[in-house]
Amino acid sequence: MAAGMVHARKPMITWDGLVENAGHCVDVVRAIATLRTDFKTGRRQIFGPSLSAQAWDLIFIFYLAQVEGRSIRDRDATFVAGLDAETGRRWIAYLVGSGVLAERKEANGTFVAMTPAAAAKIEAVVAGV
After folding, report:
1. I need a surface site. Which of 58, 85, 90, 113 has the fewest CB within 10 A?
2. How far is residue 87 CA from its own chain's centroid?
3. What residue segments make up the domains of the chain, in order of their start?
4. 33 backbone dihedrals φ, ψ, rounded to 5°
5. Does domain 15-128 have CATH number 1.10.10.10?
């Protein structure tokens, strides 16, 4: 199993569920909202200027899932981000190849999680907000 993969098995989550269940990480959610408000600066500060809003939405979904200790399938994250399947797969493949995300294939789907290095970058920026 890849380092940094989330092991906990919990029910599938939605964007509303991520926010609703994030009571213990309100500061993180608030900081992420602040970063999204200043989107171009925030994303450049963390991963450089090459990511689109679509990729950034996926990163937020996977990061919040990690904060909650939940596993999330690639297709569920794509759905929650409002992306079509092909676009979601393409961005996830790019983010995996860039070391931002890691995949774990199982019989019931491909689960994706933030890598420890990517999560640390987000947390460093969140700590400064």
Report:
1. 85
2. 16
3. 15-128
4. -60, -40
5. yes
